[in-house]
Amino acid sequence: MTSSPTMDDEQNRQQEDWLNSRKNRLPSFTEVLSRRTRPPVDLFMFYLFLQREGAEDILDFWLDVQQHENLCRAYFKDVRKSGRTIKEDWPQYWEYARRRGSIYGTVVGLQPNAIKRSTASTGEMINDQEKNAITHAADEKRSGQRSTTPGYQKEPISSPPTAVNSPEFDPPRSTTPFSLSGRTPTLFNLKRASRAPTVIPRSAAISRMDLIASAERIFFRYLSPAGTVNSPENHEIYLPPALRIHTFPLSSTQEPKSQSDLNMMAHIPDMFHAQKEYCFRAMEQDAFPRFLRSKAFGNLTPVSALVRLVVGLIVLWIGLAAGFSLIFLDVQPKSKRFFLFIPFAFAILFLISHQYELDPILVFLGQSESTPFRTLTIREPYVKRLLLGRAIWVTTLVSTCVVALTLLFWAVPGHRL
After folding, report:
1. Where is the RGS domain (predicted)?
2. Helix-, strand-, coil-residue percentages of the chain, each rounded to 5
3. CA atoms within 13 A on the CB side of 372
4. CB within 8 A of 108, min separation 6: which ones?
5. Predicted confidence (pLDDT) per residue in 292-347, tens digit
6. Cα angle for residues 159, 160, 162 (degrees, 5° grid)
7. Beta bridge partners of 406
8. What count of other Cβ atoms lies within 10 Å of the Cβ of residue 240?
9. CA dist list (Å): 297 to 293, 339, 352, 355, 360
10. How confident is the model at residue 256 (pLDDT cuts 50, 70, 90)?
11. Cα 247–248–252 angle (5° rounding)?
12. What region does 393 belong to: left with phi over 0, alpha with psi -120 to 50, or beta?
């Protein structure tokens, strides 16, 4: 009964340590993926950012492969707990890992010099607890409109003819991980349901067929060319030619028996690791800097900023029309022109908010938009300081423009036409 509170206290203490380490800097991509960060620069907000660009599949792929690797890691741990070695239980994989190295390291009983390291950006600072947190990140991304992917239930995926997946048949593909590749961003396709990464419950011991089923789902979801699989879940992600996988000869419904199939099955645990590393680097170098610029230096979504531009121009037109009417009708007393500060204030506020993609009123209330006109509380300390500083600057700029414009219209002498 006392273990649960102790574990909660330890997690809270760890969260506080992570938070203290970021008091004077923005979070890294690894910290966002491992859910060490808080809104508005957490994993949920990054997913929404990619979703607006129609590129969330690359993050779904990374999370699915992370889940697949955790499943393989759990299988190896179960084997070792049973008293058997990986060499005895799965000799083909042992030989493969001994020759080429393995990302699972000492879990499969390899010597340190035979461990295949992840890239520094992915490997650093992610422990088992954080990896488990990453694989369940989709639970926080459903937000009502998302369809959930069922647990470990085999999907009726019909394998396309071999010719379709062969290297000779290479249909048109996107040229960058973040190009739309024929898909429409969420901004113009609000009914598109996103998928949660596959979560496989451990109600029974993990078998090698479970590993094949996991790899098969990933291949047909993300690596098979769009349109070649009769499934609405098929959305191919971009990969450079050297990393593309054209065929998946194994089947989750038939246990491998031939020597060639057994040798092929030895590739399953590490099958997508190179592709996962490529996607990590692509997100880290392309989408993530834009995400930080969007959320650490602004608090509006593109749609909300566009609405402010339109409303600001309309209100500015109303204010100018009223100002010129007071001048050319020579309305007295002249002090009535000071009331022009009301439309000018709203107009300048909306226009500058659009320009900076930052609403100072929302910042002072501690809010940042997640989706158009829906807000959440800013909880990342350094981001809160950055936004507060920019909000003060925007407020000063708005006040200066409003005062200057109001005094200008007040100073112009009236002349009745």
Report:
1. 32-90, 269-301
2. 55, 5, 40
3. 11
4. 76, 86, 93, 94, 97, 102
5. 999 999 999 999 999 999 999 999 999 999 999 999 998 889 889 999 999 999 99
6. 110
7. none
8. 10
9. 5, 33, 14, 12, 11
10. confident
11. 160
12. alpha
Structure tokens at 245: 């996988």
Taking the C-alpha atoms of 115, 119, 124 and 126 in order, what is their torsion angle to the nearest 10 degrees?
A: -80
With the C-alpha atoms ordered 239, 242, 246, 247, is the resulting torsion angle positive or negative?
negative
Q: Report whether 83 contacts 205 (CB < 8 A).
A: no
How far is the C-alpha of 387 from the C-alpha of 364, rounded, in Å? 9
Tokens of 147: 């369809």
DSSP for residue 283: I
* Ordered alpha helix ranges (H), 53-90: 57-81, 86-89
Of 33, 14, 37, 15, nearest to 25 by C-alpha is 37
Tell me the residue length of the chain.
417
The mean predicted confidence, pLDDT, of the chain is 79
> Which tokens sit at 223?
């690596």
Q: CA 215 to CA 83: how far, in whole Å?
A: 26
Side-chain-side CA neighbours of 6 within 13 Å: the count stands at 3
* Residue type (1 letter), 260: S
Q: Does residue 278 register a pLDDT over 60? A: yes
Omega before 40 within 30 of 0, i.e. cis: yes
**Residue 254 β-bridge partners:** 251
* d(C-alpha 276, C-alpha 265), whole Å: 19
* Partners of residue 368 on adjacent β-strands: 376
- From 290, 355, 278, select the one nearest 119 (Cα to Cα): 278
Q: How far apart are CA 253 and CA 212, in angstroms?
A: 9
Q: What global pTM score does this model have? A: 0.76
DSSP character string of 134-194:
HHTGGGGS-TTTPBPPPSS----PPPPPHHHHSTT------SSTTS-TT---GGG-TTPPP
- For residue 225, what are its two tokens? 């060319």
What's the N-to-C CA distance of the chain in angstroms?
Answer: 86
The structure tokens listed for 127 are: 């422990």
